[in-house]
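Progress report, Aim 2. The chain analyzed during this reporting quarter is listed below.
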Amino acid sequence: MTPLHLVQLAADQKSADVTDWPDRIGWIVGLLLFIALVYWLMRQGWKWRGTLQGDLPPLPSAPDGRGPARLELSGRYHGSTTAGQWLDRIVAHGLGTRSRVELALTDAGLDVVRPGAADFFIPLDAVREARLDKGIAGKVLTEGGLLIVTWAHGDRLIDSGFRSDHAAEQAAWVETLNKMTKTTEGTAR
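Predicted structure tokens for the chain:
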């Protein structure tokens, strides 16, 4: 083969288009529609769960004369579940919304202040126990990574999960809350 013949052979061959744009655009639009459908179904599931939990009474707000704070904690609120069922998330009244949290423990109870979400108050006589655990719906940490407060609201027992910015202070919360709960039970009898 002569060099002229190779040049002519190379000129005769046409490479295929690298991208088939109509097919690619069709796949991208299809994928975006699928993602939108999945998101919409997840949102409908969240709303349905909130409807099922509609019998939960409104959350209490903090009383005016709650006294000085015994303990304060800054961290994250990871949600609430039915007590003992760490995957049964409660979404009614905003309890399923994760957020930053500022906790203050007073003689009246636990004041839960959540910027960007609904604040609520857990009266001391509603608190059943506090413990360190490793998980709550949608969040699993190392053993003892979450402060779980079990409390009664209406006819339900609820576990609420908190994670302090300083994990070492969570043990003091458990000890203090459990002491205050036992003291309240002893005076109620």
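The mean pLDDT is 84. Residues 116 and 179 are 31 Å apart (CA to CA). These observations will guide the mutagenesis work planned for the next reporting period.
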